[in-house]
From TrEMBL:
It comes from Streptomyces mauvecolor. This is Uncharacterized protein.
């Protein structure tokens, strides 16, 4: 892909994300001012918040680093907030009709999420969050079925560890 195509794709993703707000310009200002925009969930997309230890348990089981496992397992965008030790998988707006367990929580309508500027794909001591797995195209979200399977694998691994 050319640089112009990459830039156009990033702009399309940013526009799609910003449109989760009634005033999309607010998101663009927030990204320009502080790298993170507070976006509404439950309109265009929702999120599943996962504890770091859940994601890392799955990664250890696959013998890979967390971002590679997330990319392979979920095939959709994931934000990492290392300061609060959480991953956020962006998913369609339909809440699951089953429990996600104690390591994951569905966040939908009435919730907001801090979304990094499109292109902030690496951890940085100046940013609170980054795209562990960038959004590939507008509306390209994680598959909830694949996400649930990953959560089950991680939960089983964590629950089978001896207590300390």
């Amino acid at each position: 892909m050319s640089t112009a195509t990459d830039a156009a794709q990033r702009e399309a993703v940013a526009a799609w994300l910003a449109d989760s707000l009634n005033r999309p310009g607010d998101a663009r200002r927030q990204w320009a001012d502080g790298h993170i925009a507070l976006l509404a969930l439950g309109r265009r997309f929702s999120a599943v918040r996962m504890a770091d230890e859940l994601v890392y348990a799955v990664a250890v089981g696959h013998g890979a680093i967390a971002t590679a496992v997330l990319r392979e397992c979920l095939r959709g965008p994931v934000i990492h907030d290392p300061h609060n030790r959480r991953f956020y998988a962006l998913v369609p707006c339909s809440p699951p009709n089953y429990s996600l367990g104690r390591y994951a929580t569905y966040l939908g309508l009435g919730n907001y999420i801090g979304v990094p500027r499109v292109g902030d794909d690496e951890p940085n001591s100046y940013r609170t969050s980054y795209w562990a797995v960038p959004m590939s195209a507008p509306g390209a979200l994680c598959d909830p079925i694949r996400l649930n399977a990953m959560i089950e694998v991680g939960t089983t691994a964590l629950d089978s560890q001896p207590e300390s």
